Inverse folding.
């Protein structure tokens, strides 16, 4: 699963203990959310549980990644309105990876 601290400048994570895993900051698993952060849960709710690329409903075993709708190099910001959750394999297709 992908989590980028800079992509989520929100205050709702201040109530949770941030953990260090290797050299990355992560949030613990939260009750009711499974293995996703509150920020990812907010995106998932906004998208009605669907991937914006393929339109399929996310399942528990799916790997989700955060996608910038407008790339940062083109002026896209790390704000919710510019972020979306998509399947990892959809993200790879979108960016031309195999």
């Amino acid at each position: 699963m992908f989590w980028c601290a800079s992509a989520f400048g929100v205050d709702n994570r201040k109530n949770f203990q941030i953990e260090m895993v290797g050299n990355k900051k992560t949030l613990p698993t939260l009750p009711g959310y499974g293995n996703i952060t509150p920020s990812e849960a907010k995106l998932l709710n906004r998208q009605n549980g669907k991937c914006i690329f393929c339109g399929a409903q996310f399942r528990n075993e799916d790997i989700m990644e955060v996608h910038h709708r407008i790339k940062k190099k083109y002026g896209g910001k790390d704000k919710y309105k510019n972020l979306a959750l998509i399947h990892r394999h959809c993200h790879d297709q979108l960016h031309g990876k195999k």
Summary: The domain at 5-94 is CATH 1.10.30 (DNA Binding (I), subunit A). Residues 38-46 form the longest helix (9 residues). The chain has two helices and four strands.
